[in-house]
Structure formats: structure tokens, C-alpha cells
Task: inverse folding
């Protein structure tokens, strides 16, 4: 299938006009309505004096966002999603980084956006019923600053950065098309299929939800935010045939015993991506959805949605089960992966950091300063993206994720750099040091911030969480805050994160002071 | 376990929530996900703890998950479960 830029809008026109394109609760938007809305948005932008930069989408998932994305594609503009629920500081950082031509919002997000915006960018509002477009702030002939986003960029996603601010990942149209070529071929959707729209727009896996479903002519069924945590009822009631989520959603259903045999009879395809997928959960999911294929996808945002896949066989074998985790499989056809092992560190040649190259891999970060050690030149002169993911290649050539080479964490599939949270805490409490880890055992699970203050009492847990909430999205706010009696360092004088995590997982006492046996 | 009054159920739910969050006081109708330090993992663990406490099983396949996301909602649902002849 040949997909070109702007093709989404053409393909929308080819669909059966009365088929439902997007379903949000009781609201159904047909392909014809979606196409009309796309044209209307495009016309508003074309007729306005708004500058040439990217289009920011400050809306929840739904038909309005889909139409805005299709309009941006047709106009040859990048789109940049923002979450209105993120702190004002973060929203302003992102806007300053991309210098948008305009922002598209909805009735639902308008009040919040009015609070955080400083009156600089044109603002187009889509009404709740999708029948009206109005300028909340009309564009003026004086254009905003020149955008750093080149015209070959399809979208920009922001992920957690180690420098204390979000890191912009600009994905080229060429990369998106390469991904869609593989995805529509192997994991495509047909008219009549009902595909989940699980991911928020700020998570790049939402690009798959929207493009693959609408290109295929299926119905995109938006999951309400409050159902995302335990989506069993949504899956059944909405008769979802194509499901795509982070493994956490399946983990949660498995934990509460909901994955009973045959409860998802309509499901024919399940994709997981974003986190390690455990075998026991996968097997329970297969029992719950006996007619569904299950595919484990892997890929950093820098490699466009996903770049490797593994089709889960009906039976687990010793070869595909290393550490109880489902393989991430093989790199997509046309893309390249290599393993950089460090023999001097005792690593075998089949184990090391995964490096990626090919048309799906970005050329660099929005801020060149973010990429200083993420890209490397190979002996062949090719630029490789260093994923920071440690992998192992088994005898069948399948890749297995085995951990990280740095401190990056995953929370429900979201990348979290502890340094960004530690920076937010340090800004509010300059006299204290902190270390943020993820605990998987013991009394405190999830993100835990351990604080150490040389003098006086440490800040209250609620104050630490508030400091984080003022700069970071909710998934980066520590679930627990613990005060350390001493600052744990290793033999090199560096913070010993593993020791902190172990102690937090073992420590069952109050959150105020953790007894700390510092090792040296 | 049966014959819990709604008052007892609410007290037990409040206690199980309080053991898991930083917040000093919490409105019973507030969303646990939005108004407390609980994340989705924390909510799932809370549900498992509630099931163990009352020796019952909450069926998330039939229950609207939203009704499990506040102390009031949980209390209502548990009271209903325990009123059923074979509840628990």
C-alpha cells in the first residue's frame, strides 16, 4: 500500500460515507462528517493569516482531534499534541519549543487553555457537537516567531528528558509512512472492525490508533479516561475487535482476576507495546480472548511508534521465555538493529545495547542539545540511535528486552527520566537531595521519591508531590515520598540507586525516616 | 463475610485507602485517581486488598470501573454485593 502525505484525507473520502469513523461514548461521527470537519478546519487555517508553523492540538482523543490531524497532514504541517491537564509550565515549555502557527482546542479544554495561555497564539475552538468552528483568538497578520519544525515533520512528541524539561521528538513524514506501510500490512483494520483508541494523543502509540484504523476504514472507539485502568467492561460492551494498549492494562485485569476464559469473544487482534510483556499475563489474555492474535510490539518514540514485533505463538517454549518476558522479536523489514556489546564488561556478543537505524529513526531531537549521546556513527558512516535498552538475541534470532543501560523508568508505558523529577524537587527544595526509583515489591509500589536533607526536617510528602505537580504530568508524580536518614553512595561516591530501591522495597515502616545502612 | 453495616464498610474502605495515601483528609466522593497519590497500580492493589478484607470478589467485567474509584462508590458497591443472597 502506497501512502503519501495528505493521503489520509483522500482515503477518508473513499470510505463508505455513512460508516462510523469515530465513536466517543454515544457520539458517532461518520466518515462523511469527519471528512467535512477536516475540510472545514483546513479551510479556516488556509483562509487565516496564521503563520506556517505546526498545529498544536489541545484536545482529548476523538473525532475533533482526528480531523485536526488529517487537516494538518493535508496542509503539510506537523501536529503537536498537548494535554490540557498537564501543568501550565510544561504546556508553555512545549509551545515555546515548537512556535506553533495556531492551537486547536475543543469546548472541553477551552477553559483550561485560557488559564495557561498568555495570549500569543491563535486559538481555534471545535464545538462539542463538532458542528461549529470559532476563533477564540483570531490570527493576526503579525506572525509568531519562526518555528524550528521543518516541513518534512509529521508530528512532534514530547517525552521525559534528563535535563529537567521535556524532550521534543520530531518524526518525519517519511518515517510515519514507513511505519504505516508495515502496520497496515501486518496489523491492519478493515471496514466493520472496531478498534480501540486507548492512547492519549501525547503518547505516540495514539498515532497508530488513529492512522491505522482510519486508513483501513474501521471504527475508532475512544475509551473514556476512567475506564482505561480496568478496560474489561469497555472491551465487552463496545465489542472491540482490535485492541492496542500498554501491557499494564492487561496486568491490572489479570491482578483482579478478570481475565476469565472467553470473556472477550469479539477480540481478533491484540497489540501490546510500551513496556515488558510478561508471559503469565499474555497466557491469561489468550484464554480470555481465544480468537485473538497477540503481537508484542517494541519501539522508542525516536523510531516511530514501533520497530520490532513478535507474534505470540499459542504455546510458550523454553526458547521464547527468557526471564518470563515475551520477546520483542524481529526488527521490521527495511529497518536495522544491531547489538552493541561490551566484551570488556563481560558481555557476550549476543547481549548489549540495541542500536537502531533506518527510515523510521529520527534524524535528531528538536533541541540538538538533547541528543549529544543518543546518536552514534557506525563504522559504515550510518547514524544509529542508541536506545538505551539492553537486549539479548536468542538462538532463533529473536530479540529479548532485558533492561536499561541507564536510569530511565517506565510507568504505564510512559518514559520517565528520574532526573527530570529530581530536578523538579530540587527547584522547590534546594537544600535537599532526592533520588527517584520505581519499586515493584513491598509496601510502596510505583514511583518513590527518597529525600535527604542535611539540616532540619525534610519537606512534607504532600509538599514534594505538589512541587512535582506544578511542573510534571501526573504519571511523573511520585506515589510515595520517603525521607532518608543518610545519602547512599557506592564505592565511586555516586548515588546507589539499586541500593535505595532495595531498601525501599524492604522497608515497611513509616514514610518519614528510612533507616539507611550506607554501603561504601 | 456478611452482615456488615454500610457504616462498617465505609470505615473499612476509608482505613484501607488511608493506609495507602499521603492525604490527611479525603472527601468520600472524590476520585481516588485524581485527588490522591494513588496511581492506577495503587487503585488495583486497593481493590485486591478490599477483596481480601471482605472475602468477596469485585467483578470488573460487569461493574463500571468509575464506580470503584471513590470511597462512596466502593462502599455502595460492596454493600450491594454483600446484600446479595450469594454475595461473597
Result:
Amino acid at each position: 500500500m502506497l501512502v503519501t502525505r495528505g493521503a489520509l484525507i483522500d482515503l477518508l473520502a473513499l470510505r463508505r460515507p455513512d460508516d462510523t469513523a469515530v465513536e466517543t461514548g454515544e457520539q458517532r461521527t461518520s466518515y462523511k462528517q469527519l471528512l467535512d470537519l477536516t475540510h472545514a478546519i483546513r479551510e479556516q487555517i488556509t483562509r487565516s493569516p496564521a503563520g506556517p508553523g505546526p498545529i498544536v492540538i489541545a484536545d482529548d482523543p476523538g473525532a475533533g482531534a482526528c480531523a485536526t490531524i488529517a487537516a494538518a497532514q493535508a496542509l503539510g504541517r506537523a501536529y503537536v499534541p498537548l494535554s490540557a491537564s498537564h501543568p501550565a509550565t510544561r504546556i508553555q515549555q512545549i509551545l515555546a519549543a515548537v512556535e506553533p502557527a495556531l492551537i486547536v482546542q475543543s469546548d472541553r479544554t477551552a477553559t483550561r487553555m485560557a488559564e495557561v495561555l498568555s495570549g500569543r497564539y491563535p486559538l481555534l475552538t471545535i464545538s462539542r457537537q463538532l458542528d461549529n468552528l470559532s476563533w477564540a483568538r483570531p490570527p493576526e497578520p503579525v506572525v509568531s516567531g519562526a518555528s524550528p519544525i521543518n516541513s518534512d515533520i509529521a508530528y512532534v512528541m514530547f517525552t521525559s528528558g534528563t535535563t529537567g524539561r521535556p524532550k521534543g521528538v520530531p518524526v518525519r513524514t517519511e518515517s510515519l509512512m514507513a511505519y504505516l506501510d508495515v502496520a497496515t500490512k501486518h496489523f491492519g483494520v478493515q471496514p466493520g472492525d472496531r478498534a480501540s483508541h486507548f492512547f492519549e494523543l501525547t503518547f505516540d502509540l495514539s498515532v497508530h490508533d488513529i492512522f491505522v484504523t482510519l486508513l483501513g476504514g474501521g471504527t475508532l472507539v475512544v475509551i473514556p479516561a476512567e475506564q482505561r485502568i480496568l478496560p474489561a467492561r469497555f472491551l465487552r460492551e463496545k465489542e472491540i475487535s482490535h485492541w492496542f494498549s500498554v501491557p499494564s492494562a492487561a496486568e491490572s485485569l489479570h491482578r483482579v482476576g478478570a481475565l476469565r476464559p472467553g470473556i472477550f469473544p469479539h477480540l481478533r487482534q491484540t497489540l501490546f507495546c510500551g513496556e515488558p510483556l510478561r508471559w503469565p499475563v499474555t497466557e491469561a489474555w489468550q484464554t480470555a480472548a481465544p480468537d485473538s492474535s497477540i503481537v508484542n510490539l517494541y519501539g522508542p518514540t525516536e523510531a516511530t511508534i514501533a520497530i520490532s514485533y513478535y507474534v505470540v505463538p499459542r504455546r510458550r517454549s523454553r526458547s521464547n521465555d527468557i526471564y518470563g518476558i515475551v520477546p520483542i522479536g524481529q526488527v521490521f523489514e527495511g529497518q536495522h538493529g544491531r547489538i552493541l556489546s561490551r566484551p570488556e564488561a563481560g558481555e557476550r556478543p549476543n547481549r548489549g545495547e540495541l542500536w537502531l537505524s533506518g527510515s523510521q529513526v529520527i534524524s535528531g531531537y528538536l533541541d540538538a542539545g538533547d541528543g549529544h549521546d543518543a546518536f552514534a556513527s557506525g563504522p559504515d558512516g550510518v547514524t544509529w540511535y542508541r536506545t538505551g535498552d539492553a537486549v539479548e538475541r536468542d538462538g532463533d534470532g529473536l530479540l529479548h528486552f532485558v533492561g536499561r543501560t541507564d536510569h530511565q523508568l517506565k510507568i504505564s508505558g510512559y518514559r520517565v527520566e528520574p532526573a527530570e523529577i529530581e530536578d523538579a524537587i530540587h527547584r522547590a527544595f534546594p537544600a535537599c537531595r532526592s533520588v527517584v526509583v520505581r519499586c515493584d515489591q513491598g509496601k510502596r509500589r510505583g514511583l518513590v521519591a527518597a529525600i535527604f536533607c542535611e539540616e532540619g526536617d525534610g519537606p512534607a510528602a504532600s509538599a514534594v508531590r505538589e512541587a512535582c505537580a506544578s511542573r510534571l504530568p501526573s504519571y511523573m508524580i511520585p506515589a510515595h515520598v520517603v525521607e532518608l536518614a543518610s545519602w547512599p553512595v557506592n564505592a565511586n561516591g555516586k548515588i546507589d540507586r539499586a541500593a535505595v530501591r532495595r531498601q525501599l522495597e524492604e522497608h515497611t515502616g513509616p514514610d518519614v525516616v528510612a533507616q539507611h545502612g550506607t554501603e561504601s | 463475610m456478611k452482615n456488615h453495616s454500610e457504616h462498617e464498610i465505609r470505615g473499612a474502605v476509608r482505613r484501607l485507602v488511608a493506609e495507602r495515601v499521603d492525604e490527611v483528609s479525603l472527601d468520600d466522593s472524590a476520585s481516588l485517581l485524581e485527588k490522591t497519590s494513588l496511581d492506577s497500580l495503587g487503585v488495583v492493589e486497593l481493590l485486591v486488598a478490599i477483596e481480601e478484607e471482605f472475602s468477596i470478589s469485585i467483578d470488573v467485567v460487569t461493574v463500571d470501573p468509575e464506580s470503584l474509584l471513590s470511597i462512596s462508590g466502593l462502599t455502595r458497591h460492596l454493600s450491594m454485593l454483600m446484600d446479595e443472597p450469594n454475595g461473597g
User: Anything to note?
Assistant: The radius of gyration of chain B is 12 Å. Chain B touches chain A through 29 residues (CB under 8 Å). DSSP finds four helices and no strands in chain B. Chain B has one domain: 6-83.
